[in-house]
């Protein structure tokens, strides 16, 4: 397996020692794209928190703060953690309260006294924390389990990052596409983990060495879990088609877009496998939509505000897997409650002529959209590449915008890409499992 320098670095930071073996064959170490060297890789943007701590924590002392209804744990290193009584009672790990075979809570909310006190809290001889509740029910908590669930802002941030890997590395035209080998990703857990980590952090990973025949994107999806069925089928064939039901199925240029904004829940991840390339043209283009949104916010805050607040109509009508008539309303730049950009929804082909805006917002909307598109089309922001038969590009469809230059269509040698969608929930699920497998394997090797 070989990864670009960029991914090597990202992986080293994110999975610490385990990545060392995974990245045994980094190419040209030390050549990070300059856009990524300082800001995104330094200071608070480190990936260290993505690793699962292996150190065992031990409890020095525990006491109940009855007034505040909190339990205080003092750790061996002198640090303290606070846990609300209500939360502790709610999360009792005994077999009456927890179904261990499902790792799920059996205790019903209706049976939880959210004003409970405690009778006794103590450290057990095997360094667990034991609580006796007023009704004499007893809960015993493992020290590591408690430590991981500490309520301090730093601890919560670390767990959030470990679970969701929300820190992203922004890039521009200087990005060297993280690249891995298709067969290794299919058969080697460390290679698969490296692939998914880079897919999450960078948003795009290029896989080389797949057979140039249909069925490979489905195999790749099965490596993760299952693919996402849409109206274009389980997988779909990007070719120049007669009476095309999608602009992608022509030989024309496709401007930068995300796929399927006409669905309220657009597919999170996209795979595109090149089976046949055009003799002339057909070059691919990608930009980092999150980076572009941030840049727009800096350069043109009014346009950013417009695109993060107005809902725009998208539509898609036709017949493929079955007949469809989709309508959606989306903000072109989606932000979460904290104002962080979480999704880009933009495809000029399926942006509806129905525009459900008051008259006075129409021109400002066009101005904002034009500013965003102009920004994305700047050469310094765009990465271009030409796929060869056997190449598969895997990318974050909530983040990247992708396009294609027009090409000369030849009926005797049709340009042919096969595509498939997945969702981030399934991809992240596989990533977490692979991370645990690789870590367990490493622990096993060390002992
Ligand atoms: Zn219990």
Task: Report on the architecture of this protein.
Its EC number is 1.14.11.1. Pathway: Amine and polyamine biosynthesis; carnitine biosynthesis. Helices cover 30% and strands 25% of the residues. It has 447 residues and is α+β, with helices and mostly antiparallel strands. It has two domains: 59-150, 2-Layer Sandwich (NE0471 N-terminal domain-like); 167-447, 4-Layer Sandwich (Double-stranded beta-helix), CATH 3.60.130. Strand 4 (98-99) and strand 5 form a beta hairpin. The structure holds zinc ion (ZN). The site of zinc ion has 6 residues, from loops.
Question: In short, what is this structure?
Answer:
30% of the residues lie in helices and 25% in strands. The chain is an alpha+beta fold. The strands form 7 sheets. It has a 6-stranded mixed beta sheet. It has a 4-stranded antiparallel beta sheet with strand order 12-21-14-19. Strands 1-2-3 form a 3-stranded antiparallel beta sheet.
């Amino acid at each position: 397996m070989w990864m670009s320098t960029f991914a090597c670095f990202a992986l080293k930071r994110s999975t610490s020692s385990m990545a060392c073996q995974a990245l045994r064959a980094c190419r040209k170490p030390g050549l990070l794209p300059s856009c990524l060297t300082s800001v995104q890789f330094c200071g608070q943007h480190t990936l260290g928190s993505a690793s699962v701590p292996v150190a065992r924590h031990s409890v020095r002392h525990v006491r109940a703060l009855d007034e505040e209804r909190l339990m205080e744990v003092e750790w061996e290193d002198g640090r303290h953690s606070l846990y609300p009584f209500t939360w502790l009672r709610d999360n009792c790990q005994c077999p009456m309260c927890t179904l261990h075979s499902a790792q799920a809570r059996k205790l019903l909310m209706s049976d939880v006294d959210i004003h409970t006190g405690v009778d006794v809290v103590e450290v057990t001889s095997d360094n667990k924390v034991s609580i006796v509740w007023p009704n004499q029910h007893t809960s015993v908590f493992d020290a590591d389990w408690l430590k991981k669930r500490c309520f301090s802002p730093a601890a919560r941030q670390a767990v959030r990052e470990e679970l969701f890997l929300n820190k992203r590395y922004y890039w521009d035209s200087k990005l060297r596409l993280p690249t891995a080998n298709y067969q290794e990703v299919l058969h080697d857990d460390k290679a698969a983990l490296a692939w998914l980590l880079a897919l999450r952090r960078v948003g795009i990973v290029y896989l080389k060495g797949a057979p140039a025949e249909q069925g490979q994107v489905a195999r790749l999806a099965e490596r993760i879990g299952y693919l996402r069925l849409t109206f274009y089928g389980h997988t779909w064939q990007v070719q120049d088609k007669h009476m095309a039901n999608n602009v992608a199925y022509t030989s024309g240029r496709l401007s930068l877009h995300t796929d399927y904004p006409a669905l309220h829940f657009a597919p999170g991840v996209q795979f595109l496998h090149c089976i046949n390339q055009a003799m002339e043209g057909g070059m691919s283009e990608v930009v980092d939509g999150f980076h572009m949104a941030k840049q727009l916010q800096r350069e043109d805050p009014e346009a950013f505000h417009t695109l993060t607040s107005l809902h725009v109509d998208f539509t898609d009508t036709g017949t493929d897997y079955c007949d469809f008539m989709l309508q959606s309303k989306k903000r072109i730049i989606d932000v979460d409650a904290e104002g962080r950009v979480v999704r880009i929804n933009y495809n000029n082909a399926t942006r509806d002529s129905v525009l459900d805006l008051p008259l006075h917002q129409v021109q400002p909307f066009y101005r904002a959209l034009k500013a965003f598109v102009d920004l994305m089309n700047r050469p310094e922001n765009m990465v271009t590449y030409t796929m060869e038969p056997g190449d598969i590009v895997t990318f974050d469809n909530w983040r990247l915008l992708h396009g294609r230059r027009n090409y000369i269509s030849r009926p005797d040698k049709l340009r042919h890409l096969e595509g498939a969608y997945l969702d981030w929930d399934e991809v992240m699920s596989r990533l977490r499992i692979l991370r645990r497998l690789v870590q367990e394997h490493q622990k096993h090797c060390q002992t």
